[in-house]
């Protein structure tokens, strides 16, 4: 009798869940009869991993990794479609394929890795006129818009970009945007990048550690800031802020906040303020032992230090390794392994200024500038990419949950 491990989502957590499950199953084929009957199924709109951490960069269309060959080489079954319903009682998910036809996919163990989405508050004009880099299509739309600016008459509005939100993504985007604008409009163009945030501090969630470096980078790059400022309206030619002041700009980019996808609401269980499902150390949903949750959909304890996972591929990748292993271990009747990630580091891109690398949950600055930029380039260009499909045994080996080396993103 076939047993299905169904994985929802082809983000970092979903891909690594699938590889980890296949790794454990493959290792038991010769000594456990149940292994031959377990199928790993991943469902996603496209057979590709979108490298979301890179979508703030220019040419975002290049930041996708095709998964067809990797899945074929490692024995992962891919179903192209979008999951629009989860039936916990029926133990199945409803899939809408690219033609609009629906089907039902049963599961014995479900790994929910549907990810997160940008929060869009009900600000007049936000949906119609603000750009974002939350998904690949949105980042490509922004890129096309920016490239199109050079065909428009020079004006203050054309030359101004407003970035809304001074968190991780907003800071990376704003510091990247200075050089990006000049490469499009010319070095002599009188460009302006304005970073607007409701918060009173730059990168409030990043803490005090890297803030002086971020401030220096913004000053060096000429990025202006308006902190403690709310956006009350957006249109095609600018924004209105809480004081009633209007700022002219043809480009407004919204980065302020993310939450778990709406699909998460269909699964009952305790959730945090971001809508993420709270799971135990095995990444299992306490209210339903057949469901594991990983990546941005999960709020998981990272160890014995009182911290929970963050919406970051630094956490999504090892969470995927653990969730895939544990879902397969359940069906193979072997011990599970707890998700444990005591080390936390971050590397924030600061455009031409460089980057800043921090260690620890208190985010102690280790290095900044050009040296940190090289580390960020390695992260973005190498470490977040999946293994090559030409060596499936190495790809599966890399999915071992014991491989929990220190990584920064």
TrEMBL record:
Domain FAD/NAD(P)-binding per the UniProt entry, residue ranges: 4-320
Signal peptide location: none
Alphabetically ordered keywords of this record: FAD, Flavoprotein, Oxidoreductase
Cofactor: FAD
SUPFAM superfamilies attached to this UniProt entry: FAD/NAD(P)-binding domain (SSF51905)
Pfam families in UniProt: Pyr_redox_2 (PF07992)
The keyword Flavoprotein is annotated on this UniProt entry: yes
Domain of life assignment: Eukaryota
BP-aspect Gene Ontology terms: aerobic electron transport chain
A molecular function GO annotation: NAD(P)H dehydrogenase (quinone) activity
Family: Belongs to the NADH dehydrogenase family.
Name of the protein in question: FAD/NAD(P)-binding domain-containing protein
Species for this entry: Hypocrea virens (strain Gv29-8 / FGSC 10586) (Gliocladium virens)
